[in-house]
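[Q] Does anyone have a clean structure-token version of this?
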Amino acid sequence: MFEQIPVDIGLVHEGERVRKNDMQVELGGPAEPEKCEIVLVRPVDAITDGDISIVGPDIGSMEEGKHYPLGILVEIAGAKVEQDLEGVIERRIHEYSNYIEGFMHLNQRYDIWIRLSKKSFKKGLNSFKYIGQVMLELFRNELPILEKIQITFITDPEKLKLLYREALERYESRDARARGLLDRDVDVFYGCALCQSFAPTHICVITPQRYANCGAISWFDGRAAAGIDPKGPIYEIVKDECLDEEKGEYTGVNESAKKRSMGEINRVYLYSAFGYPHTSCGCFEGIAFYIPEADGFGIVLRGFRDITVNGLAFSTMADSTAGGRQVDGFHGISIEYMRSARFLHADGGYERVVWMPAETRERLKDFIPPSVYPAIATEKDVKTIPELKSFLINLNHPVVQKWKSDETAARATADRTAVLSAGDIPITAGGYRIILKNAKITAEKVIILPVRAPPPGGGEHRGAQKK
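[A] Here you go.
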């Protein structure tokens, strides 16, 4: 199928990383403000089947080590092809691109980040024509309902602006459609395993009120995908019994997570960042991160280039969030999930959010309660945790009342209880190393004493206890 392609094509290359020192060129990514990939359904007579076009400089004429804007437009047609399939097929661009040796594709929609390795470039992968040919063959092979396909790669910045605006409008139109449906209105959710090559234990659970972390797959998209390819990477999850409506725990989701993660993940809370939070891959649009000093959450999106209020950049926190792990207080999220009434529902929702970039706050203005909106700090208001706490007090953020109630409870139980919580707690005893997974330890009192060697002559050190 790929005899004319100068590099190897196959599943073995999924999950490959191209580091900066090894890249020939970078396409899209954090340095480019406008980039996108979109699939659009067209009338059959509007498409030239198999056509691959390049608008702007091709890979071979790009300077080594530099970054360039990129738009990928895939136009499809067929008697059974409906607009509901656009988002589903769009997400396959990520999957199919990563089959290509030395071609790393991350993220989705308006946030794509692609790198081509020097090694693959030297082998002859020097044109988008090759990338397009791989996509064409895989789309045809795996989705036979597509009767016609044509692909356009746009690297000309001015021409890309037009596609970028059209793409944003189409994304919003798709997202808005799913907002009226509630989780309790349906019997099935959908799971997506498209990112398991990067995070083997991660399974995205897609519900009407919880979009995929990448922001590209809605519940309607999941239904359409499972319908055309029942054995594909997007599949049905029967809800079964609801174990906890507030946290969003269902027996069907737990069973699916256990099976798909090969036993690594046994329980999932869909609406909480604590306990058994939904896992994250690496394509999430944003991170909800816990700020213990304020007992609230900060929100940061991938495009934010500054340092957040806790002193960490998005990239730093992404390392703690990604990888298919369940990490308390670090939660990969999509923008559309932030528009949901179920957003961090068990943790207090927006009444627990204390910081986010100004652009993000404005973007979500219609979905944040008016009483909370002005009390959420941004990078323009505060730079440090002490400044954040003062801001929250002055603006009377709801979380401040929680501080007061917690202080009252703390005084009532002073010196009685200490709690230690961590992902893994190592203990060394008797020559063995014991690791407590997802441990939460409660103690009446914690006493830390230095361990000292006994003095010469075998006498006991002061402070040592006699048996």
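[Q] Thanks! Anything notable?
[A] The chain is about 25% helix and 20% strand.
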